[in-house]
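quick one
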Amino acid sequence: MTELAPVTQAALKARLPDAQTVTAVTHWTDRLFSFRVTRPASLRFRSGEFVMIGLPGDNGKPILRAYSIASPSWDEELEFYSIKVPDGPLTSRLQHIQPGDEIILRPKPVGTLVHDALLPGNRIWFLATGTGIAPFASLMRDPETYEKYDQVIMMHTCRKVAELAYGRALVESLADDPLIGEMVAGKLLYYPTTTREDSPRMGRITDNLTSGKVFADLDLPPMDAAHDRAMVCGSLAFNIDVKAVLEGFGLREGANSEPQEYVVEKAFVGDGI
Ligand code: FAD
Ligand code: A2P
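structure w/ flavin-adenine dinucleotide:
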């Protein structure tokens, strides 16, 4: 009679390649949560990039989706900020993960929301709707952001106040951050707005830029191509409309291969797009 080999950790990893362990989960609303996982020792990434993460599917094929890494490149763990799509193949299950569970993480970071894709400037604008704040959660915690720019403006717009909570908590935590607290002080300007529930600041990012309201509120000059840089992350419709606004201020779209004044990434791929 042959004895079965004991199930070793290595064998488990072989069954779930690229497995990482969940270390923390926070639910912000019934549609939004964030979680942290262990970081593969070999993973190097630039703040603002995304990776593919997922869970094993029923047929043994993994269900993988693109996710912005929300933690900065220096963090020893990885953080993600996620939507919960009720019938979504991945997030209908991912929303139930708990510390100790494993997820799949393909360690191949890519993306355009990186400092290298922009020409040097004085002010950088992070423009996000919904979960599009995730790459900026990384960039707002990266010392390079404050080394490169005199002012960092985080505009985040959601329909409702509760949907701003993750970004607000993150911004508020920066002041006490031992690594970058001092760098952030006085440089980071946070401009959260809602569009379908009353809050101290209201309105779409596009409207607040074109009307000049955000410049007046923050006591900043209007955007210009000589001084201002921007990174954009939201729905396809948002990205298209913001691009038109930025082009109106004279900014041009850049890429890793050809740095210019602004860069864009989709926060998700919409139905039928
Ligand atoms: P899917 O079948 O993938 O999506 C179903 C539908 O849900 C979509 O058609 C769309 O209408 C809607 N939807 C999907 N994602 C979102 C979203 N984030 N916000 C609002 N509506 C959405 N998602 C995150 O939650 N966090 C991220 O950091 C993130 N980064 C991404 C980066 C890139 C470059 C891309 C292309 C997508 C990113 N996404 C992110 C979206 C993500 O890849 C998945 O679509 C999402 O996790 C839902 O997966 P699902 O399988 O449950 O549903
Ligand atoms: P609004 O409530 O006026 O549509 P969504 O949940 O639909 O992705 O929207 C997230 C946020 O982005 C909402 O505050 C929404 O405003 C805003 N938004 C959606 N589409 C655009 C767009 N094309 N231009 C500017 N803001 C947009």
